[in-house]
Amino acid sequence: MRLLLDHPDLVDFALAELAHWRDWSVRDRVLKLYDEKQFDVSAIKRAVIRYFFLCARDVSADAKTDPPHAAEAKRHVEEFRRRDPQLVADVERFLVLFIE
């Protein structure tokens, strides 16, 4: 799946699978996609936001603090929210149907 991150026509699928597998090891690479011209498509931006939103929720119920990957992802989600509030709202509205 990580190889598919270089392909704009498949990256949204790859991000969904990586999030499903809880593969947060490519966070830096995924973050860069958000600003790359060839990936400047709302579906891809939503997939990036969704990946980080799910990463931010990957915390243990009994943990006293968030693991580093989740804390970092929360910061990125807030940055996306500042930059593209409507896009983040759309992602959250969709995810609430499947997560809650």
Topology summary:
Elements: H1 11-20, H2 27-33, H3 42-56, H4 68-83, H5 85-99
Written overview of the protein:
With 100 residues, this protein is mainly α. It contains five helices and no strands. The chain has helices at residues 11-20, 27-33, 42-56, 68-83, 85-99. α4 crosses α5 (85-99). The model has no long low-confidence stretch (mean pLDDT 94).
Question: TL;DR?
Answer:
The chain is an all-alpha fold and 100 residues long.
Instruction: Using the alpha-carbon principal axes, give the shape.
Output: globular
How many DSSP H or I helices? Answer: 5
Helix content: 55-70%
Number of strands: 0
Q: Distance N terminus to C terminus?
A: 27 Å
The helix/strand series, from N terminus to C terminus, equals HHHHH
Average per-residue pLDDT, rounded, comes to 94
Gyration radius, in Å: 13 Å
Largest sheet, strands/sense/barrel: none
Beta-strand content bin: under 5%
User: SS-based structural class?
Assistant: mainly alpha
Low-confidence blocks of residues: none
